[in-house]
User: Which sequence fits this backbone?
């Protein structure tokens, strides 16, 4: 079965650029979606179809893909961006896959 | 404003059954596919099941196939998840999530979740 791999943790200082990566063989030719989850809360969609930002998501959030790797970039990370981030795709058998999640610390 | 409210969680013994409900409002219920996604304590997200907007197509994660059944009642604008043969590994917060009208494959709106604990 396919897997999506994310680094377990990432730490940046406020104002720095945070790049959360997601990689996996199943990602080629599939759209990637990203979710932000803060402690005790439901996830929130922050990026869809690789690089489309939902309304209400700050412009500092952007997405990109290259081959079997996707990246969620937070340009000028803020303390309120501290959260877990998950990537997600649909694989070739119509199964939805999540990455393991990356805990972003902004400190 | 989209609202998804899950209910039905609780403590259940291994091998027993439980049915979760998700009451929807703020959108046309039959316009979007609906999903269940779960999250074990301290762990990541795991997709569980999806039902198409017309209710005809249902897909499941391998981990629950044959044990869980997703269904919906359009007249009550409610999504269900019937869980049988529950295992300790099914312990998780279960979220109801709504897809977009044009793309079933991602989750634009989520409920707050309901906790299922499988323990003797």
Assistant:
């Amino acid at each position: 079965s396919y897997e999506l791999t994310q680094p377990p943790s990432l730490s940046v200082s406020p104002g720095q650029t945070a790049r959360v990566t997601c990689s996996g063989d199943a990602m080629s030719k599939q759209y990637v979606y990203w979710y932000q989850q803060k402690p005790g809360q439901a996830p929130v969609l922050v990026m869809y179809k690789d690089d489309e930002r939902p309304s209400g998501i700050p412009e500092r959030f952007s997405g990109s893909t290259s081959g079997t790797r996707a990246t969620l970039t937070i340009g000028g990370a803020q303390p309120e961006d501290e959260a877990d981030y998950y990537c997600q795709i649909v694989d070739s058998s119509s199964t939805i896959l999540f990455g393991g999640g990356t805990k972003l610390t902004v400190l | 404003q989209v609202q998804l409210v899950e209910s039905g969680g609780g403590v259940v013994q291994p091998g027993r059954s439980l049915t979760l409900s998700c009451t929807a409002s703020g959108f046309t219920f039959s316009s979007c596919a609906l999903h269940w996604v779960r999250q074990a304590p301290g762990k990541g997200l795991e997709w569980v099941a999806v039902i198409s907007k017309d209710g005809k197509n249902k897909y499941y994660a391998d981990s629950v196939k044959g044990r869980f059944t997703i269904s919906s009642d359009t007249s009550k604008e409610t999504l269900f998840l019937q869980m049988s043969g529950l295992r300790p590994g099914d312990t998780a917060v279960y979220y109801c999530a709504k897809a977009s009208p044009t793309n079933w494959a991602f989750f634009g709106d989520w409920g707050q979740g309901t906790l299922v604990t499988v323990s003797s």
Notes: Chain A touches chain B at residues 1, 31, 33, 35, 37, 41-45, 48-49, 54, 84, 86, 88, 90, 94-101 (CB under 8 Å). The mean pLDDT of chain A is 95. The radius of gyration of chain A is 13 Å. Residues 20 and 106 of chain A are 13 Å apart (CA to CA).
